Amino acid sequence: MSLARALSRLPEDSGTEMIVRDVLMLFSKHQREWLTVDDVRHRTGYAEVTIERILSTFKDSYVLNSRVGEPTEYAFTGDIALVVEIDSFVRRIRAHRDHVQNNVAKFRERYSSY
């Protein structure tokens, strides 16, 4: 079980990281609740293809459990090591976003024509 393993299989762009963060937060809030791709899509608002790719990667990397059926359902069991890894990932994404927003604010303040 490794979030790092799953993340290494996904594109390393900020858009994908934000989607991954939102999906992880959803499953963290709904531990042991079985969700389908449609459930995740409706709750996050992201495209089905993107959600399917992320959930499949998480399943293959043992971040999420899956229950075969029509449709396939996914659940997060709340393994403590994985919870720590997810918290670290979410904090890193939040810190990066805050850093970028701070730099944009400084740029606007410095070069604004107001």
Plain-language structure description:
- By secondary structure, the chain is mainly α.
- The protein contains five helices and three strands.
- The chain has a three-stranded antiparallel sheet with strand order 1-3-2.
- A hairpin with a 5-residue loop joins β2 (65-67) and β3.
- α2 packs across α5 (80-111) and α3 crosses α4 (48-60).
- The chain is elongated and about 60 Å long.
- The mean pLDDT is 90.
Structural class: mainly alpha
Tally the helices: what do you get?
Answer: 5
| Fraction of helical residues | 55-70%
User: Topology as H/E string?
Assistant: HHEHHEEH
The residue ranges in which pLDDT falls below 50 over 5 or more consecutive positions are none
Mean pLDDT across all amino acids: 90
Radius of gyration, taken over Cα atoms and rounded to an integer in Å: 16 Å
DSSP strand tally: 3
Distance between the termini: 52 Å
Strands in their spatial order, largest beta sheet:
1-3-2
Assembly form of the protein: single chain
The portion of residues forming beta strands comes to: 5-15%
Main sheet record: 3 strands, antiparallel
What is the overall shape?
Answer: elongated
